[in-house]
Structure formats: structure tokens, C-alpha cells
Amino acid sequence: MKVLIVDDSPVTLALAQARLRDENLDVLCAQGGVEGLEKTRKEHPDLILLDLKMPDLSGYEVCERIKSDPELGSIPIIFLTASDSVEDKVKGLDMGAVDYVAKPFDPVELSARVRAALRVKRLQDLLNLRAQLDPLTELWNRQAMETRLRQEWARTSRHEEVLAFLMMDVDHFKKVNDTYGHPAGDRVLCAMAHVLTVQCRESDLACRYGGEEFAVILPGADSHEAAHLAERCREDVEQLALPAQDRVIRVTASFGVADSKDLVSRDDLLHHADAALYRAKREGRNRVIVWEPYIADTTVPREVTS
Amino acid sequence: MTDTNNTDIEIPDVLFSEYESIPTIAGILHVFLDSLPDMVETMHAAMDGGDSETLASLAHQIKGAGGGYGYPSITEAALKLEHSAKESDWELARLHLVQLELLCVSAYRGKHAPAGG
Asked: How confident is the model at residue B70 (pLDDT cuts 50, 70, 90)?
């Protein structure tokens, strides 16, 4: 894990770094508050040891800026303080610091407090990750997908790049559940997730959108490239043979694909992929349809699409 | 509570770090010791210029580092100096600064001319 030490004194930095070296941590140093903020933004450390008194930017100011930044606010902060004042310590804790260590620090105590803060951070990260995963398929859930889409959309717009969105829906999934039971239906959904995981690039984000519907965000890809991915997934799904009771479940899936070219809203991207998916269903299922302007008027209520 | 006004600090000829036997600390003692001459000189200049803020701030820094490098007596002397500087008690501050400087010299000696040297 990565720990950032922020202190205006190189003497303290060297000492803290030496003290934490044995903890098997990636220790970074920043001399002063301004550099501390810069390194926090760039490195996203798992823990910050923050000196209170720094001439360029005080520890309080650094803490306040970090805690008010949604991207950085969850990073735990331990104040390092040579101050005896209870008010200073209380103020630091009230601002969101998880702990403080008095300088000169006792080597054993510093290491123990760092270990404790990192233990809590690991648990928080785990909980945070769990909250973003679909428990059945272990793909990202819809909420995580929406957060990531918002970020990718902003990044894509900033760099004038392109972004593709793919939607996949299992054909006649209700019939699978009705015929083989819900546990078998769950196995089909897990198999779908596996197909997506195998076929997606590392930079893609596959999620369970809801029910038997899945989605993939493809940063840097256009709808042509996304259609290739969709076609590979469609073929894989078609090849699936899942044993159930004394029979074999075979399923197919339909795909709708769109990209962000010429779009001003990410909602339009979702609507386009959704409309293309509906078109795929209407044209007979088990196919990939790329959004084209002629599809625009064919959108129907979601419940008709399965 | 620490009595920050008394002047009773023992100053040995040679001062060794309590962490001399810990390789990670022994290896960086020079970072602390080499920073002291400049800091002491700046503190003298601050005292001569009546700049109690700079004097207290530098004493505060040494206070925070000394014990960490295994020199609790340096932290103690720096604490007294910080306090007297904040109080603008120049007579006491001058005495505390001299004590701090002597301790720094002893520590420097301990590092560069170990036991019996």
C-alpha cells in the first residue's frame, strides 16, 4: 500500500520514511503542503501522514482540501504534530483525520498507528468494492456503471475521443427460468458474465445492467469496434451448453451498440444502444445491431424487449 | 507537566543516539545532524534580530525531530527554547539556545568520534 508523508522538514521526512521502510509499504514524501496536495492528486495514496505546521499551506488547509474533494475524500489522514495543544489535536480529528501522532514520534507507535489506519482503509476499500459489484455475477453493478460512464464521458469529451456503449439481453430468458428453474437461470446469467469478461478488453467495463440485461462501456472504441466485440460475444453465447437436469440449456443473446460521435449527452448514448437492442429483438433476436439514425423512432417500452 | 522554564539539562561531552543500533535510523542520523548547524545559526540570527516567531518555529522543528532520531535531550532543550521564544523571554531563550547548541555539538561528536574519541 502507498503512504504519503507530508512535512516541510526534510529531517522529519527522512525519519518517517526510515521508520516505515520495514512495514513493506510504498512510502512517498512531499516537502510542504502544496507538494503534498499535488502528490495526493497524482498518486492517490492509501494513507497520508500530514504535518500540521507548514509555512506554504498548513496541514489543516491540506486536510480540508482533500476531504472536500470527492475523488480524494476517503483517503485517511494521520496528523503529525509537535504541538502539545489539545485544541490542535481535536481540530485535526474534527476535520476528518483518523488519528494523530505526536512528534517526536515513537518508532513502534508510529508503525502501529499506520498499520491500524491501513487495516481500516483495506476494509473500507473492500466494502466500497462490494457495494459496486453485482453479487450473482460479480460484474460491476448498474450504479458503478453509471459512475464510470459519467467519468468516461467527461474524459472523452475533454480529449475529443470516442466512447462506445454496448447492451446485451438474453433472449427468452423468462422461458429459461420457467422451464429449468431460477437456479438454472442464475447459472445462465453467470455464463453470460463470463463471456463478457473473457471477450472484453482490460479497459472495458462490463456490468449487469439489471435482470437479464448487461452493458459494456468501451472507452476509445467506436460502434464498429464495439460491434466486433458484440459479435464475438454473440457467437460465444450461441456455443454455450449448460447442463440442467437431464437436458442442456442453450441460449442466445441480442446486442445493441452505439458510440458517442456527434452526441451531446450520455443519456443519448444509452438511448441509442437501447434502441439498437430493441431493433435486434424485433428483427429476430440473436444478432448485433449498430445504432443508425433510422432506428431513432423505433424505441418501445423496455418490457417488450425480452 | 514539563517545566519549560528551568535550565537544568545535562550536557554530556559526547551524545549518542538511542537508536544507533537500529540500522535504518543509524543510516540517516547524518540527515538530522547535518541540518543542525544551519538551523542553529539561523536561530542565533533570529535572536539577534528579535524575531521570536522564527526562533520558536525552528525550535519547534528540532523538538519534533530530535527524539525521533534518538536524542530526547535535544527535544527537551528545543521545547524549552520554543517556550521561552514564544514568551519573548530573551534572557532565558539565549540560555536555552546555548544549551541546545551544545547538545547538538555533543551529538555531532558522538556521530563522528564515537566512544572514547
From this structure: very high
Residue-range definition of the domain harbouring residue A26: 2-131
Q: Looking at the complex, does the CB of residue B57 fall below 8 Å from at least one CB of chain A?
A: yes
A248 touches chain B (CB under 8 A): no
The number of distinct structural domains making up chain B is 1
Partner B contacted by A111 (CB < 8 A): no
Q: Which of A216-225, A290-299, B55-64 has the lowest mean pLDDT?
A: A290-299
Q: Kindly determine whether residue A82 and residue B63, on different chains, have CB atoms separated by under 8 Å.
A: yes
Band of pLDDT at residue A24, cut at 50, 70 and 90 = confident
Inside any domain, residue A84: yes
- Measured between beta carbons, the chain A residues lying within 8 angstroms of B80 are none
Q: According to the 3-state scheme, what is the secondary structure of chain A?
A: CEEEEECCCHHHHHHHHHHHHHHCCEEEEECCHHHHHHHHHHHCCCEEEEECCCCCCCHHHHHHHHHCCCCCCCCCEEEEECCCCHHHHHHHHHCCCCEEEECCCCHHHHHHHHHHHHHHHHHHHHHHHHHHECCCCCCECHHHHHHHHHHHHHHHHHCCCCEEEEEEEECCHHHHHHHHCHHHHHHHHHHHHHHHHHHCCCCCEEEEEECCEEEEEEECCCHHHHHHHHHHHHHHHHHCCEEECCEEECCCEEEEEEECCCCCCHHHHHHHHHHHHHHHHHCCCCCEEECCHHHHHHCCCHHHCC
